[in-house]
Amino acid sequence: MAEEAALETPGTGEQPVLDFSEVLAESGVTGVLDQLDRDLVGLTPVKTRIREIAALLLVDRMRRTLGLTAQAPSLHMSFTGNPGTGKTTVALRMAEILHRLGYVRKGHLVAVTRDDLVGQYIGHTAPKTKEVLKRAMGGVLFIDEAYYLYRQENERDYGQEAIEILLQVMENQREDLVVILAGYKDRMATFFRSNPGMRSRIAHHLDFPDYTADELVAIAKLMLAEQQYRFSPEAEAAFREYVERRMRQPNFANARSVRNALDRARLRQANRLFAKGGRVTAEHLMTIEPEDIRASRVFQEPVSEA
């Protein structure tokens, strides 16, 4: 271990010393944080908070190495924000960080929704919830749209049973499982008000802002590059206009909507090349043109000025 390699005892009576750089390098955490920067455009507040949590955990680990006692930090989290803002990706990287620093045994992520936890009849919920928890042990359990676990309007809803089981495990087995609850900010606030026991177990609240138009265009270019596509200059301008229009329409889901738009643009590009026929180069096959973007119905639908 790096702590052992970096632990120095300069002389009799002097305190042992850890080299922060060596411990950090051995953990591999810097690589995970760098990967997070590459994976996600923008989200500076979120990335800053993840780095702060990583620093806290690294220092806690070094304190334990030097025999300093302290209560293990609480690691359960809440991620709030609109769809497509990177919550699942950050959860994956958080699981890696926790594993590299020794706070979870495996570092895997189990992502679920209400349907994976809550049964439809008496006696069904507990086995479903416990099976999910069993799969997640040693890693991170990511519960998307967590507020759907609690349905106040239905006194006979079985979601409360799942919540009670989760609360017990979050408290009694917090050294072997980290739970991340995710969803819309306003709905998560209501959920926590209705479930104070859950609120008290959440140590870190991260809010994921919506992407700007510039960030969404940058995300689109990265997505295309991963598949060896690119915009022509005119197509990039058309896609920026598409994004600005789409952001003002209902059900916009940030990077998720961008990915769907690119899938449709690639489909139109393929049909355009197929219809044209003749000889093509790699450049033709790689390039998205403005007509592949402007054929979207987004350009035909009225745009809200709100």
TrEMBL record:
<dbReference type="GO" id="GO:0016887">
    <property type="term" value="F:ATP hydrolysis activity"/>
</dbReference>
<dbReference type="Pfam" id="PF00004">
    <property type="entry name" value="AAA"/>
</dbReference>
<dbReference type="GO" id="GO:0005524">
    <property type="term" value="F:ATP binding"/>
</dbReference>
<dbReference type="InterPro" id="IPR000641">
    <property type="entry name" value="CbxX/CfxQ"/>
</dbReference>
<dbReference type="InterPro" id="IPR000470">
    <property type="entry name" value="CbxX/CfqX_mono"/>
</dbReference>
<comment type="similarity">
    <text>Belongs to the CbxX/CfxQ family.</text>
</comment>
<dbReference type="InterPro" id="IPR027417">
    <property type="entry name" value="P-loop_NTPase"/>
</dbReference>
<feature type="domain" description="AAA+ ATPase">
    <location>
        <begin position="73"/>
        <end position="212"/>
    </location>
</feature>
<protein>
    <submittedName>
        <fullName>Protein CbxX, chromosomal</fullName>
    </submittedName>
</protein>
<keyword id="KW-0067">ATP-binding</keyword>
<dbReference type="InterPro" id="IPR041627">
    <property type="entry name" value="AAA_lid_6"/>
</dbReference>
<dbReference type="InterPro" id="IPR050773">
    <property type="entry name" value="CbxX/CfxQ_RuBisCO_ESX"/>
</dbReference>
<dbReference type="InterPro" id="IPR003959">
    <property type="entry name" value="ATPase_AAA_core"/>
</dbReference>
<dbReference type="Pfam" id="PF17866">
    <property type="entry name" value="AAA_lid_6"/>
</dbReference>
<dbReference type="InterPro" id="IPR003593">
    <property type="entry name" value="AAA+_ATPase"/>
</dbReference>
<keyword id="KW-0547">Nucleotide-binding</keyword>
